[in-house]
Design goal:
By secondary structure, the protein is of the alpha+beta class. The chain contains 4 helices and 3 strands, in the order ααβααββ. The model has no long low-confidence stretch (mean pLDDT 86).
């Protein structure tokens, strides 16, 4: 491996790290509950509010507040469930 290849791979690693930092910049100033909900959505593709409450061990009211904050920041997408129109499905959009 030449110096140029090592330097390029190091540059790529730094760029990838910056992309991860930029990805979470909208979440950085939010409350801890919103950060936790965002991270759980990062690991799980799509969850309902009740599933998020189960996964995070947060009260439903706290999850509802976190979701509203995340929606305000444009970090998550919400859509209605086809199987149960009373429920909304949340996915991370960053």
């Amino acid at each position: 491996m030449s110096y140029g290849e090592v330097r390029m791979s190091t540059t790529d690693a730094v760029a990838a790290e910056e992309n991860v930092a930029d990805r979470w910049s909208a979440v950085r100033d939010l409350p801890p509950s919103a950060k936790l909900v965002a991270k759980v959505l990062d690991y799980n593709e799509t969850l309902t509010q009740s599933e998020l409450a189960e996964e995070t061990l947060l009260p439903p009211r706290t999850v509802r507040y976190a979701l509203s904050r995340l929606e305000d920041e444009g970090v998550i997408d919400a859509r209605f469930s086809f199987t149960d129109a009373r429920k909304r499905l949340y996915t991370l959009s960053v």
